[in-house]
Structures
1.
Amino acid sequence: MSLLEIQDMTMQFGGLVAVDNLSLSIEKGKILGLIGPNGAGKSTAFNCVAGVYTPTKGKILFDGEDVTSHKPWDLCKKGMGRTFQIVKPFAALTAMENVMVGAFATTDNRDKAAAKAADVMDMLGLGDKKDLKPGAMTIADRKCLEIAKALATNPKLLLLDEVMAGLRPTEVDEIIEIIRTLKAKGMTIFVIEHIMRAIMALSDEIVVIQFGKKICQGEPEAVACDEKVIKAYLGDDYAPA
Amino acid sequence: MTQNELKRNCLIGLALAAFALPLVVSSPTYLHILIMLFLFAYMTTSWNLVGGFAGVLPLGHSVFVGIGAYTSTVLWLQYGVSPWIGMIIGGLLSAAVGYLIGKPTLKMRGAYFALSTMAFVEGVRVMVENIDMLGPFKLNGPRGLNIPPLPAQEAGFWSFQFATKEPYYYIALTMLILVLALTYYISHSKFGYYLKSGGEEPEAAQALGVNVASCKVAANVLSAFLTSLAGTFLAQLTLFIYPKSVLTLDLSFELAFIALIGGRGSIAGPVIGALLLRPVSEFSRIYFSDTLPGLHLIILGVVLIVVMLYQPRGLTEPLLGLFDRITAGFIRKPQEDTV
Amino acid sequence: MDLVFFAQDCINGVLMGLIYGLVALGLTLIFGVLKVINFAHGSFIMVGMYVSYWAVTLTGLHPYLALGIIVPAMFLFGYWIQNLLIRPIFIAERDVREPITVIVVTTGMWYVLDNLALLVFGPDYRALSPNPLKGQMLNFGEIFISVPKLYGAAAAVATAGLLFWFLQKTRMGRAIRATSLDRDAASLMGINQWKIFNIAMGIGTAVAGVAGAVLTPFYNVYPTVGIPFDVKSFVIVVLGGLGSIWGALVGGVIIGLVESIGPIFMTSTWTEAIVYGLFLLVLFVKPSGLFGQKHDW
């Protein structure tokens, strides 16, 4: 059964159609990758799913329930966790307190939230950075912190928005490892990524969009050879004749 | 003894010293200065719940001081209701106003919120100055309300009037300690975490399940309630209120300034800010108000600008750092002895 | 109600409203470029009025000729304030689009300037002298028009027009507009954004100086004279749309009319409350104002 289902979703800003009739679904326990050239509408689609925007048209079903115009905080409580492309740590709080904000989604008790936060941070290898302020952390750690905050909310579905952008290859490998671990634990993950190596390695299925429209969907190998996808990324000249 | 234990012991010591102070200080003038210091620390701490933790800049909190002062005074003068009860009623009224004004304005960005709170308090002041009777309640327009002092034997707890300054001193001190304890409790609770995260990065907080807008409104309601109690206290202390004394931008600004200089969002900030600034205000008012009018406000403004330029998070952090450094050597010694 | 009185009130309202627009013009310009609400704007008006007062008193010049002194003096004042006090915050809080610290610092400036004026000049209300425009009236049948207000309204329109031309047609004006649209992109095009900010603040302050010079012939000068203008300017720019030059004039005229026609129906202090109510209403209903661009407030 699919955990997330997007049906004919359209998002319009004034005259600009950022997402055009997009439909897709994610099975429980799978990783779906969403790729596309810059400005294709990936982040907009994400923000619609996460409740930041209400789509102009279409329906979003989460765990069988229509959540189309629900607010971000409601969706979080229902089990949707997300990260932001540009990391948004709470600068005045320590790393641990940052994660605790997420953990409070599952409990009102401070000690329980702290324990939950500590667990998540240990799992992600942030165990020794609990008392640091985000400003004192490396980019890679801050990206990791972003995942930790989302995980602390106990999500059923994790939305990852370019968590690997700007990282060194070894750091990318670490994050790939983390995502694989999460999948092994049964987490369903919806991921936007620019780093092809990463998305090819991770995804069970990939959806490619361009100008807000879905142009291709399939397993990583199939998508990589698709004519339309190559055109979209490299231009007409590179398309196999 | 660790740094934290030392700090805790210092705090307990300070509180005890504050309670014992009237045994040493008997001059009503100095007691009055201390009472006002506590009262401002109290009001600024209440302000800090929104202005500090929720990350907005309210510049109209005197409206709640005014509501508190007027409510209890009107009820006492016209119906003989004890100001203590008036205090609570005023607080509830302020909380309602805090909800009504906070609901639409707290959605706005910084400058717009600050502007609307300013406009609100100015609007309310202008209205009160124009109203002699609000329905059955006598507000007496710009002339304000006078609470006739009771003879010494009739004054007491029920009437919230005391012949000496000491009871006021203890009430103000107790109010301050209670509000600090409440702030401490909140800042370590879920609500506190939600407020702080929502104040810093609303979008990120929302994605983590925080309903930022309703948290801010809740903080505003609580802050309005607490600030309002100080209004009643102020009315009973001075026994005379008028629109330009309790419903002014000056008072609103002073609260914001004290918090900002002390360090918004920290628990100690408002107290440290009040400790640093109230004496400056009081003494320049006492000694220079004839020769150099407005001097204390110039000092306040200059200090504010300098602090914002060099320590935008306020003076509490550097001062606590200094405290740590001074006490660091003093703490290490016993440890070395035991080794 | 007598129609003549009504016409008289309308004319007064429009004239005074245009002058209010001029008072708010500097605020809206500074916001447009720096994205900062200058809470000390009323104090800048006050400084402008004192500069105008002293320029006229000491030199005996006609108040409008004294603009030759007022405008450069105020420009330098604003330029200097921006460079010394606000630029460091912009640098320190580069990531924050609209740092609260700037509001706080400008509020601090408001306090310092107002009370400094009190300290130096005392609380006295000062009337301009020599004042060649004092009490002059034009007379059309039963309708009287105050000459200093008429000149002031004309100066308001002229200043707004000049500012509009400057921003649209000159090289510097284009650089200012480019910076206001996207400061980073403008920087990449070789525009020194700090210099632009200084100049924009200078121009905004100079316009406040013009407003001060226009006000002094019929408005007394005293240390806290800026406060009513401060709050009024906020109302006007929010009404007209933050950052819009013509919006400021329209907003000013609306406020001017409310103030002049309102007293027919109620006591004049109530109209003041209405102005604040109007302000809150606009903030709640259409925060981008009548002519403003939509911001994500």
2.
Amino acid sequence: MKSRPSPDTLLPTSKQDAVTENHWQALAHFTDARIGLGRAGVSIPTGHSLAFQLAHAQAIDAVHAKLDTHSLLDDVKASINQTSHLSQTTGFNHLFGKSPLLLHSQAVDRTQYLQRPDLGRRLNDTSVALLEQYRHSSTQHYHLAVAIVDGLSSLAIAQNALPFLQALSELLVISTDSKKNWQTAPVCVVEQGRVAIGDEICEQLQADCVLVLIGERPGLSSPDSLGLYLTWGARVGYTDAYRNCISNIRPAGLHYQDAANKACYLLNEARTRGLSGVELKDRSTDQTINMDQKTDNLLIAPFQKTQEK
Amino acid sequence: MSSEASKYLFRYVVGQRTFGFSSLAELMAKASPARSGDRLAGIAADNAEERVVAQMTLADVPLSLFLEHMLVPYEEDDVTRLIVDTHDKTAFASIAHFTVGDLRDWLLSDLATSEKLKAVRTGITPEMAAAVSKIMRNQDLVLVAKKCHITTAFRNTIGLPGNLSTRLQPNHPTDDMAGIAASILDGLLYANGDAVIGINPATDNVQQATRLITMMDEVIQHYAIPTQSCVLTHVTNTIECIEQGAPVDLVFQSIGGTQATNDSFGFRLEHLAQAQEAALSLQRGTVGNNVMYFETGQGSALSANAHHGIDQQTCEARAYAVARHFNPLLVNTVVGFIGPEYLYNGKEITRAGLEDHFCGKLLGLPMGCDICYTNHADADQNDMDNLLTLLGVAGCSFMMGVPGSDDIMLNYQSTSFHDALYLRRVLGLQPAPEFNVWLENIGIRQSQPHFSLHEKIPEQFKAPLQQLKQQLNEEKQ
């Protein structure tokens, strides 16, 4: 007969013994990096391991969730109607007072979209025909075309596209200067699109420039990041060298109003100079590095430094 | 012979069917294990059968053909010129009669000892390495790579059998000095950072690089850590940093396998030579003089539209010709960073990581791997665990140590400080010997073969930790 193991070896030790906490946890205040996680043996403890999985799950869902285009189109229309009650000449109505157009790239679904960036850069035949038809229906000259593109995060579009556009539209209509008066084409909502799809939209609508609002590649802690790309005189085949970008627009990143200020600055500069891209620098809030900032090396305590000398 | 058949350079008959391949580049591309980048380029095999037939055809190709058929013309491309001009015919002589298939058999055989592999290394061109890898299974890539011992040194020795080093990667989205310091401290206390402490700067200019280089140098000097630092800025920036007197240990550059790729990265081979010379002139290495750190990755040539119709794995192997000319301390294939249009899922990333490690080691490079993925790839941390374990078995020189696997600056997931410790435990691997002694002496790891950390903070780190906490309280007030 086998002897029973003694109770001591059967019972697990207390939870505290299994996980070694790090005494430097407080340093996590200095960075969003996942430091001071502690360890179970040499492995990441359960809580942090699952927190990581949750963040990754949210990022993946953001990539694969289909953009709810109907509710987005409804929201755009509602914004137009709402502002038209407030004023006939200012706000959303003035800028985007036409029914939005729903377009689709040549990538039929997400799987193809992820493997064929070239297809995500071009409109499908139906969309081209729709834009041609629209263009022929009006002789209006457009200063600006706006494209809302799902990109790699429909979540970013669903949460941030309209609040940003509202902030921007208020800035663009304030000016009484006719040179800063922006006549805009109908908002285009694009499914399975990449940044460069805006070039074809700009070309088809014969607009002066295009502003693309696109869902950026989700980071682990930023599944909802919206990016903006401005291209002056965009034509199919343009490279990124012709674009100006504003990145990381989301509640926990660059705020709508700040993003709208930057975008407004770039739009007016692009229009004045007739160009965009590497030759158009954003000097709206020049964020140069302050070289005078505290350069004390925090890993070397001051008294230790003195001792060295 | 009919005109239809004569247009093919290579033909292979399977039953009633004849398969044809019109060029060596086409044959190589179609013989490549499936991946999205080759499909995107429109050069992948049409179906599974054609892929294997291409592999069978490639297995019969004599190695000498790779010295006659240049995939990119000699006149047009400085990487081709480098490969041809530095080819060691004496070393090649012992394998000159082999086909690609013969080479595989020989590599796997007991005839190919570590010493013999070292002796033929300079006779093998990147195209030969790429070709043989295409007809090797994953376990073949592991087995042969493990036999290739590549040792390099600067302030410690990288790549000794039984060792696994890590790059401590303390990136911060705004290069905040306190944030970077916090991540460096975390990494060191988790016994990481013997390959290099290497920062990808958020702001890429000479001033910023100098600030970061100086900060890391102070830490390395103060704690007498047998390791080296690097800021991953453009090679021309690092040259300027050196001219301005910055304490540069390693020179970084991303490199590719065609001249046009490197043009898109904004450098020529002369820049690398100039930078290597400048770094060597500083004489900062204590146990060796390998001063270069290169990063590569399949797909870079295609994304720069500079692939000349060549498959992405062969382009990658050609980048190793550039690397080995400059005697690097570290070469890092950043395997899953480029995105799913080049490597779609965990399976493709795993295969590419093993191929790159094998080709690099066969050609004589200190290969490490950034085992990683982006959030739009069909991959997760379990895929990374698998590749990490496979590469550990294969004798990979180093991997990344990123806090909690989450790089908050580059927005992708890599391997963590903890992952390195996992690998050291399950495979009995050790850090670089000089660094290992330091870890023990300063009180980070316990002095037993089984990899264990001390619970208490080492005495020497208490003061800076106190200072960081103080700064924290000031910021809170």
